[in-house]
Specification:
Keywords: Membrane, Transmembrane, Transmembrane helix, Transport
Strand content: 5-15%
Structural class: mainly alpha
Number of strands: 8
Radius of gyration: 31 Å
Membrane topology: Multi-pass membrane protein
Pfam families: STAS (PF01740), Sulfate_transp (PF00916)
Main location: membrane
Largest sheet: 6 strands, mixed
Helix content: 55-70%
Subcellular location: Membrane
Length: 636
């Protein structure tokens, strides 16, 4: 270390930064905002033919990983695909009913979208198809606009329209690289929303589980339970209850077995299909349908018919379809990206969020044209896919082919499948969405996050799915605004026997320097928080002055503002420092700046504020500032 005369540590001078290049600065900001992953990096210094090949692989990743595909990988994908197909078929039939659609539309949505995703998606593990939460959300929003019984055709057309706009929203977010927008829905809010949705979905299944014919269309827990108890004496079917409860117990037991022994992951995967087969045989042999047991009755046979002509491109329903689709699309996107990232981290590979959005958007746009409703990544199926040893997205292709065979050959066999078994399958599937351990952890870590979690949960359960979603988004935004407008500040003290200065609340042994107050600002200084930061610093100063008077110690003569966490400052921030400087002048306190970043220092010089403060009062570290000014403190 270089040493000055008197053997004091060298004080490094903080020079004015080089003048920024405006064009380069704008380019850097745009790159970090929209192209932080540097997607064009592989194309640099490549011949035209190679660039063309890379472009095709960027849009269709299957042409990249497909070059190293092997028979061994196919065997693994085949087993995984068959396993998730056995799980998805009964789930799809139930989820379609949840969305207010005929059973075949759930199967359609597990045929076309997975094929599109397999070619365009970057996740190896995600399993595509209808999911419970999105099905409930879509059905709720659609039924707010159209009665699915009285206006069946219009309801179906609006469902396809919403799916088209959901896909368009997802595609646009990915194409214009706006994927960061989905991060505004916090993890805590998602946990609460999913848990509330799971409760709501389970309550909705009481209609099928208890054999109730006249059931409320509302989703809140009060309305549902009132409907259940009002029909207790005349609306419950005890044969239906017997079927539903027995198979629900079987499905939950299968999940418990797999949870205790990971090697038995295939048990809960096959359990729904086994339940459907056994319950269908029981109903057929006993003709329980004649005793009031509600059954599926009919599923259209054959592959997806075209639905291009059914989408509303004009009229009043276009805007309604866009609103419903945008909401459903964002929720579906959030769920799929979260699932994709979870399994990618487990296998140590990266997924491209924007590519995922383009892939999900494309599959839903194509799906809307082929009689599908909104599809996304399913956590339960993706978990089974992962545990089954899938290697690539080919497992989605295998699942899709099994669904194709089901549509062509097997759908008539579902005629006697009881609705109670579909209700049981849905309940057992959504139970896993209630993550109590995660909620407890959120409470321990961050109380405000817990408010977001519990607010979203109660919003869904006691009001409606859309209100719960609105609460989740609102609280997430409120947290961001609170953190931006009310950033943290801290008084620093010297940790004994070091030249390090830290928060005195974190380090109670840290000692204050006589006559000097050191304050750290833990945020960028913008128009939204500049006045608060100025006022908070002055309050710290007032408290310190009051303490010095009470203790009859040296009055505060220097205020050091530690700015290493301050990443940026705008004109309002500059103005607030000018006001702070003026207030300090009246108190005969001098302002010292420690460790301003490049951007902050550049703006201090550009505004001439550095000259007003004094370039000799801008230091590299707090220790340098203390070393310079502590001897100058007037002890009188």
């Amino acid at each position: 270390m270089e040493v000055q005369a008197g053997h004091l540590p060298y004080v490094h001078k903080v020079p004015a930064p080089p003048k920024p290049n405006l064009r380069k600065e704008i380019s850097t900001v745009l790159k970090e905002t929209f192209f932080s992953d540097d997607p064009l990096r592989p194309f640099k210094n490549q011949p035209t033919s190679k660039k063309l090949a890379l472009g095709v692989q960027a849009v269709f990743p299957i042409f990249d990983w497909g070059r190293s595909y092997s028979l061994k990988k196919f065997k693994d994908d085949l087993i995984a695909g068959l396993t998730i197909a056995s799980l998805c078929i009964p789930q799809d039939i139930g989820y379609a009913k949840l969305a207010g659609l005929q059973p075949q539309y759930g199967l359609y949505s597990s045929f076309v979208p997975p094929l599109i995703y397999a070619f365009m998606g970057s996740s190896r593990d995600i399993a595509i198809g209808p999911v419970a939460v999105v099905s409930l959300l879509l059905g709720t929003l659609l039924q707010d606009e159209i009665d699915p019984v009285k206006h069946k055709a219009e309801y179906l057309r609006l469902a396809f329209t919403a799916t088209f706009f959901a896909g368009l929203t997802q595609f646009a977010l990915g194409f214009f690289r706006l994927g960061f927008l989905i991060d505004f829905l916090s993890h805590a809010a998602i946990i609460g929303f999913m848990g509330g949705a799971a409760i709501t979905i389970s309550l909705q299944q009481l209609k099928g589980l208890l054999g109730i014919k006249n059931f409320t269309k509302k989703t809140d827990i009060v309305s549902v339970m009132r409907s259940v108890f009002n029909s207790a004496h005349h609306g419950w079917n005890y044969q239906t209850i017997l079927i539903g409860v027995i198979f629900l117990a079987f499905l939950l037991s299968a999940k418990y077995v797999a949870k205790k022994n990971k090697k038995l992951f295939w048990v809960p995967a096959l359990a729904p299909l086994i339940s459907v087969i056994v319950s269908t045989l029981c109903v057929f042999l006993t003709r329980a349908d004649k005793k009031g047991v509600a059954i599926v009755r009919h599923i259209d046979q054959g592959i997806n018919p075209s639905s291009v002509h059914k989408i509303f491109f004009t009229g009043d329903y276009v805007l309604k379809g866009f609103k419903i689709g945008a909401v459903a699309g964002m929720v579906a996107l959030t769920e799929a990206i979260a699932i994709g990232r979870t399994f990618a981290s487990m296998k140590d590979y990266q997924i491209d969020g924007n590519k995922e959005m383009v892939a999900l958007g494309t599959m839903n746009i194509v799906g809307s044209l082929t009689s599908c409703y909104v599809a996304t990544g399913s956590f339960s199926r993706s978990a089974v896919n992962y545990m089954s040893g899938c290697q690539t997205a080919v497992s989605n292709i295998v699942m899709s082919m099994v669904v194709l065979l089901t549509l062509e050959l097997i759908t008539p066999l579902f005629k006697y499948t009881p609705n109670a078994i579909l209700a049981s399958i849905i309940i057992s599937a959504v139970v896993g969405l209630i993550d109590i351990e995660a909620a407890i952890l959120i409470w321990k870590i961050d109380k405000f996050d817990f408010v977001a979690c519990i607010g979203a949960f109660f919003g869904v359960v006691f009001v409606s799915v859309e209100i719960g979603l609105l609460i989740a988004v609102s609280i997430s935004f409120a947290k961001i605004l609170l953190q931006v407008t009310r950033p943290r500040t801290a008084v620093l003290g010297q940790v004994p026997r070091t030249r390090v200065y830290r928060n005195i609340q974190q380090y109670p042994e840290a000692e204050s320097v006589p006559g000097i107050l050191i304050v750290r600002v833990d945020s960028a200084i913008y128009f939204s928080n500049s006045n608060y930061i100025k006022d908070r610093i002055l309050r710290w100063l007032t408290d310190a002055e009051h303490d010095s008077l009470e203790n009859k110690s040296t009055r505060i003569q220097y205020l050091i503002v530690e700015m290493s966490p301050v990443t940026d400052i705008d004109t309002s921030g500059i103005h607030s420092i000018e006001e702070l400087l003026s207030s300090l002048g009246k108190r005969k306190v001098e302002l010292i700046i420690a460790n301003p970043g490049h951007v902050v220092l550049d703006k201090l010089h550009a505004s001439k504020l550095a000259e007003v403060i004094g370039e000799d009062k801008i230091f590299l570290t707090v220790a340098d500032a203390i070393q310079t000014f502590a001897p100058k403190v007037n002890q009188a």
